[in-house]
């Protein structure tokens, strides 16, 4: 079991760099950030770009992995994203993981002036986006003509520091996304079952997550792949327990134990942000960071 954190890009870098360095000092396996143009209740406040933030974090840290949770096609194109990721992987010395998902109907979906895509169109775009991005990150020269995304003699030299490319952590719960995770992912990401967020129970959530992992296993079997090859990542804060998993060290250890037994290999917790849905006691949070995994046994 690994423990990671997600640091929202809401701080000017004079303050933000202290948080990223502190995350490394606390021993987190990875620190991620959201790749949005804005997000929910934070829309009217500061919000910085994910790739520049991660580039600055790469220069401010030494060994902690860095990444997005998650990037989506909502405002990204595989050609430009690949160039930025290759650069970020180089600056970080090969410490980047790309969390990637199909996106949703939030502010990102209409920021460029388009109508929100239907769930089917999001899935169609994602199914084209991921394979093209895989090619762009592994081949020196790529030409592709797609329905949604194309590349014309695009050169991405010298490629990633990590070979054959930086790892993908594919966020998915539906069958098409699961198949993409099985084929292209080095990890799979979930936030749980959104239908249970408001009125579900912890037990119902655990059962839903068990079902998701079983479906991932079936998708891997269909792809001729061992599901054990994929890390299983749970981004907390969106199950019925919400951010209460950070109320105490004991509460988190119990939560982590249940989800480790389900098969999760990495749990991601939000860096505390007071007066928000991610509010938590900083001292408790740091105790969880430094002591929780040791108590799992």
Kindly describe this structure.
The protein has 297 residues and is α/β, with parallel strands linked by helices. 40% of the residues lie in helices and 17% in strands. It is built from 8 helices and 10 strands. It has helices at residues 13-25, 50-60, 78-91, 119-138, 175-184, 202-222, 249-262, 282-296; strands spanning 2-6, 30-33, 65-71, 96-100, 141-145, 150-155, 168-171, 187-190, 231-235, 266-270. The strands form 2 sheets. It has an 8-stranded parallel beta barrel with strand order 1-2-3-4-7-8-9-10, surrounded by 6 helices. The protein has a two-stranded antiparallel ribbon with strand order 5-6. α5 (175-184) links the parallel β7 and β8. α1 crosses α2 (50-60), α4 packs parallel to α5 (175-184) and α7 crosses α8. The longest helix has 21 residues, at 202-222. The chain starts with a strand and ends with a helix. The model has no long low-confidence stretch (mean pLDDT 97).
């Amino acid at each position: 079991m690994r423990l990671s954190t997600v640091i929202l890009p809401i701080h000017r870098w004079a303050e933000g760099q202290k948080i990223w360095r502190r995350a490394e000092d606390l021993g987190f396996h990875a620190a991620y950030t959201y790749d949005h143009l804005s997000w929910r209740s934070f829309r009217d406040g500061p919000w910085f770009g994910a790739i520049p933030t991660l580039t600055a974090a790469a220069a401010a840290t030494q060994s902690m992995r860095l990444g997005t949770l998650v990037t989506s096609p909502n405002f990204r194109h595989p050609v430009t994203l690949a160039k930025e990721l290759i650069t970020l992987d180089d600056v970080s010395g090969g410490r980047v993981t790309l969390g990637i998902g199909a996106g949703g109907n939030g502010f990102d979906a209409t920021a460029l002036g388009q109508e929100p895509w239907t769930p089917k169109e999001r899935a169609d775009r994602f199914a084209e986006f991921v394979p093209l991005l895989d090619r762009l990150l592994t081949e020196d020269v790529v030409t592709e003509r797609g329905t949604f995304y194309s590349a014309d003699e695009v050169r991405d030299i010298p490629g990633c520091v990590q070979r054959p490319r930086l790892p993908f952590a594919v966020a998915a719960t539906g069958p098409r996304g699961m198949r993409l995770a099985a084929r292209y992912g080095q990890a799979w990401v979930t936030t749980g079952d959104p239908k249970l967020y408001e009125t579900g129970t912890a037990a119902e959530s655990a059962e839903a997550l068990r079902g998701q992992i079983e479906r991932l296993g079936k998708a891997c079997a269909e792809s001729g792949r061992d599901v054990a090859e994929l890390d299983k990542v749970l981004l907390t804060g969106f199950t019925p327990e919400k951010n209460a998993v950070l109320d105490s060290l004991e509460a988190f250890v119990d939560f982590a134990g249940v989800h480790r037994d389900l098969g999760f290999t990495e749990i991601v917790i939000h860096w505390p942000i007071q007066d928000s849905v991610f509010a938590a006691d900083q001292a408790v949070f740091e105790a969880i960071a430094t002591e929780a995994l040791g108590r799992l046994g």
